[in-house]
């Protein structure tokens, strides 16, 4: 099989099965695992897969910069945000992650809601200025411009000194095996720090993130309360997560 044919085969397998197991592909095609790994390295260099131990997973479209992400699945994000906003109780304290879905949550919150919002996102904090009864606490640190959020040691330390009823957390990848992932190590650490300070953590994930993975794990499934997504209940990934006991909050 020519290299171009192997490439098409691997991409087709990734689309159908949601993962590539290098040893299985090698046995199927009668080639060495080294050859498969070389092919996967080439695909990963083009941003077409995320290499993991033993093979590869689909890469997330949500790893592009903040401005570009605003045009990715806006309807799905609005639906997820509407359901997430319904979890915020009057008088409650919310830790709200950065990102475009979190910004949609701000727009979905009742304007007169009496609540406290803790965030490390200047964008989120600015959007809440028009909510007169929302108390806003902005956690500072080095700004990671790709996602318009504060990260690094100072931001993590600040996060360790707050507590909340609820954390609404964004990720770029949602996968049964890889867990919840994002594309930057410091951002992943900050997300862990935020989630650790809330009684309940729900993950915001529109359907384009389902079944994909990024480089850095944020949290295992055991450490979140549930997933809010517009992916259908019969999506293979959603079915797997449901079987594992993950609470799925489907959007209307």
Please give the alpha-carbon distance between the first and last residues: 47 Å
Counting DSSP H or I runs of 4 or more residues, the number of helices is 10
Structural class: alpha/beta
Shape type: elongated
Q: Please trace the helix and strand order, writing H or E for each element.
A: HEHHEEHHEHEHEEEHEEEHEEEHE
The residue ranges in which pLDDT falls below 50 over 5 or more consecutive positions are: none
Question: What does the model show?
Answer:
The protein is an alpha/beta fold. It has helices spanning 3-17, 22-29, 33-45, 66-69, 74-85, 100-108, 122-127, 153-159, 185-195, 236-243; strands at 20-21, 50-52, 55-57, 93-96, 115-119, 134-138, 142-144, 149-151, 164-170, 173-175, 179-182, 198-204, 216-219, 226-229, 248-250. The strands form four sheets. A seven-stranded parallel beta sheet has the order 6-5-4-9-12-14-15, sandwiched between helices. Strands 1-3-2 form a three-stranded antiparallel beta sheet. Helix 2 packs across helix 3 (33-45) and helix 5 packs across helix 6 (100-108). The longest helix is centred in the first third of the chain and has 15 residues, at 3-17. The radius of gyration is 19 Å and the shape is elongated. The N and C termini lie far apart (47 Å).
């Amino acid at each position: 099989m020519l290299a171009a044919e192997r490439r098409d085969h691997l991409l087709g397998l990734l689309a159908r099965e949601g993962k590539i197991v290098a040893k299985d592909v090698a046995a199927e095609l009668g080639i060495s695992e080294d050859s498969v790994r070389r092919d996967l390295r080439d695909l990963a260099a083009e941003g077409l897969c995320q290499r993991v131990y033993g093979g590869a997973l689909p890469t997330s479209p949500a790893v592009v910069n903040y401005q570009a992400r605003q045009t990715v699945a806006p309807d799905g994000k609005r639906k997820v945000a509407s359901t997430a906003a319904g979890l915020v109780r009057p008088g409650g304290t919310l830790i709200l992650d950065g990102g475009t879905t979190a910004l949609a949550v701000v727009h979905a919150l009742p304007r007169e809601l009496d609540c406290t919002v803790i965030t490390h996102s200047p964008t989120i904090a600015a959007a809440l200025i028009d909510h007169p009864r929302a108390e806003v606490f902005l956690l500072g640190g080095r700004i990671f411009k790709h996602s318009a959020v504060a990260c690094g040691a100072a931001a993590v330390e600040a996060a360790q000194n707050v507590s909340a009823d609820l954390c609404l957390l964004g990720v770029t990848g949602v996968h049964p095996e890889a867990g919840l992932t994002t594309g930057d190590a410091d951002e992943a650490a900050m997300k862990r720090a935020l989630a650790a300070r809330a009684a309940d953590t729900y993950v915001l994930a529109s359907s384009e993130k389902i079944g994909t993975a990024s480089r850095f794990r944020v949290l295992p499934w055991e450490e979140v309360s549930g997933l809010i997504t517009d992916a259908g209940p019969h999506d293979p990934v959603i079915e797997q997560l449901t079987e594992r006991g993950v609470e799925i909050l489907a959007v209307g």
